[in-house]
Specification:
It is a single chain. The protein has seven helices and no strands. The chain is an all-alpha fold. The protein has one domain.
Length: 149
Amino acid sequence: MTVAIWAWVLAVYDRPGVPEATLALQDNHGQNTSFLLWAVYARATDRGLLDQAAAIARAWDQTALIPIRQARRALKTPLPPINDGAREAFRQDVKALELAAERLLMETLAGLAGQGHAVDAFEALSAAADAWGEAPPAQALADLARVLG
């Protein structure tokens, strides 16, 4: 299941509107997009499982994802006298590291449980956002559920 989840994430992230919807939930509402996407993939609505997964995602956010993301974003701006081409190449390396950290989290979460019962994406997203503790507007979750299909 762990390999399958990453292939699924890459496929859904290529759908129109998914990157924008996930980034809006992340940047505007404090959600962890890997956690949300895992919940949809796993069809997770069990509160105990969601709480366990949220704790893992929060720890990984603090340890790896947030610091890497902050470094990647800070590297967008030229930093003279650092060579701009070298800075951009390094930023791309950091971006790849951020992606690897997200993949590791997704694969870890995928190992928690098998596919859940049949629920729609909005139900899984709502349950996950509730477990995360910082519920975004329902419309933001509905927007992501719609583009996920």
